[in-house]
């Protein structure tokens, strides 16, 4: 009778009553969650308008803690578990706990490509360091002294550390109107603000190009076509090592093998899938506040975001500053089980327009400059 009364107070339908779903109470909108062994305070917002509001997990057991109540759900891989959170005695939030394979396991299922994919793609191009805008960046930002006199890998690392140190990461910030290295740094200084990972990678990319390195910023995305989080890093070609290398200014991170050799994005993805050794530099961190571990950074966060990857066909200066009539072409590497296998076009009457070309062929995407 108590459960029935609560459900009636919530104004639920007869079918919902018949299901006799568990109900917990709350007077605050935030919920803490224990996901397996991991506890996260105020990690979930109660959203009565979303029906159901889905929480995904890889754990066998999840406990939700409101400010006045709690519930423990035993997770079943093939059967979502539903319950209600009754907010302030009147708003009912249908909440669903749903099993989802770990992002690393999802990535392992996406290892297959088609090296015979011959869809026509433009060649990647890289702006010469002789370009006047890049020469200005090199001069005004004093990049030669920042990069130092070491080998090309050490110069790349020094430049990445510098961008990480002078720009604060803020994933919720609005992109500045001017999206080039000097403009982004000026906005951060004048407004005492941070920028997102894409803008940080844009700054570092132009610095690499200004120093004569072939470089692209690389958008790393999950399997889902609609998502609220992805990540952008830099890939730079080392002529000394004859390979691409991974540099991430947001997390001050690069990745090595067991010999201490710096790896590129393709190698990192393949080693994650095969379970080979990966080492993140010990001084990797977020905003000089939180250290970054291999487990957090690679096996969880980047395992999610290395499912598919995208680069602009042209790596240059001031690429993504918005302009009416400006067309940009992006090339996206997608595994065979990817949800998007067709080229797309998005035209804007007022801002940048986009062509996105898809390939399943890693040899085309990772082509040497």
UniProtKB/TrEMBL annotation:
<dbReference type="InterPro" id="IPR038765">
    <property type="entry name" value="Papain-like_cys_pep_sf"/>
</dbReference>
<dbReference type="Pfam" id="PF01841">
    <property type="entry name" value="Transglut_core"/>
</dbReference>
<feature type="domain" description="Transglutaminase-like">
    <location>
        <begin position="146"/>
        <end position="249"/>
    </location>
</feature>
<protein>
    <submittedName>
        <fullName>Transglutaminase domain-containing protein</fullName>
    </submittedName>
</protein>
<dbReference type="InterPro" id="IPR002931">
    <property type="entry name" value="Transglutaminase-like"/>
</dbReference>
<feature type="signal peptide">
    <location>
        <begin position="1"/>
        <end position="18"/>
    </location>
</feature>
<keyword id="KW-0732">Signal</keyword>
């Amino acid at each position: 009778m108590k459960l029935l009364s609560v459900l009636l107070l919530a104004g639920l339908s007869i079918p919902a009553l018949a299901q006799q779903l568990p109900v917990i109470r709350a007077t605050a909108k935030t919920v803490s969650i224990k996901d397996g062994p991991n506890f996260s305070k105020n990690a979930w917002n109660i959203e009565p308008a979303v029906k159901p509001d889905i929480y995904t997990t890889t754990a066998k057991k999840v406990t939700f803690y409101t400010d006045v109540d709690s519930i423990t759900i035993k997770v079943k891989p093939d059967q979502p578990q539903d319950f209600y959170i009754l907010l302030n005695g009147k708003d009912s939030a249908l909440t669903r706990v749903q099993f989802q394979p770990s992002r690393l396991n999802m990535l392992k299922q996406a290892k297959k490509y088609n090296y015979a994919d011959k869809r026509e793609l433009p060649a990647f191009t890289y702006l010469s360091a002789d370009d006047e805008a890049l020469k200005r960046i090199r001069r005004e930002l004093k990049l030669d002294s920042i990069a130092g006199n070491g080998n090309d890998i050490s110069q790349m690392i020094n430049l990445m550390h510098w961008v990480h140190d002078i720009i604060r990461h803020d994933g919720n910030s609005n992109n500045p109107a001017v999206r080039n290295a000097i403009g982004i740094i000026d906005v951060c200084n004048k407004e005492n603000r941070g920028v997102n990972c894409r803008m940080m990678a844009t700054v570092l990319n132009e610095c690499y190009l200004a120093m004569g390195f072939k470089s692209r910023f690389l958008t790393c995305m999950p399997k889902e076509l609609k998502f609220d989080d992805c990540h952008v890093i830099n890939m730079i070609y080392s002529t000394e090592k004859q390979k691409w290398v991974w540099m991430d200014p947001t997390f001050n991170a690069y990745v090595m093998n067991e010999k201490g050799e710096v790896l590129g994005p393709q190698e990192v993805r393949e080693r994650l899938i095969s379970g080979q050794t990966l080492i993140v530099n010990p001084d990797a961190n977020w905003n000089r506040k939180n250290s970054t571990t291999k487990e957090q950074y690679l096996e969880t966060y980047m395992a999610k975001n290395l499912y598919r990857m995208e680069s602009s066909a042209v790596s240059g200066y001031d690429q993504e500053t918005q302009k009416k009539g400006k067309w940009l072409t992006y090339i996206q590497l997608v595994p065979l089980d990817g949800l998007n296998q067709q080229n797309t076009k998005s035209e804007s009457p007022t801002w940048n327009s986009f062509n996105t070309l898809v390939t399943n062929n890693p040899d085309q995407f990772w082509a040497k400059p």
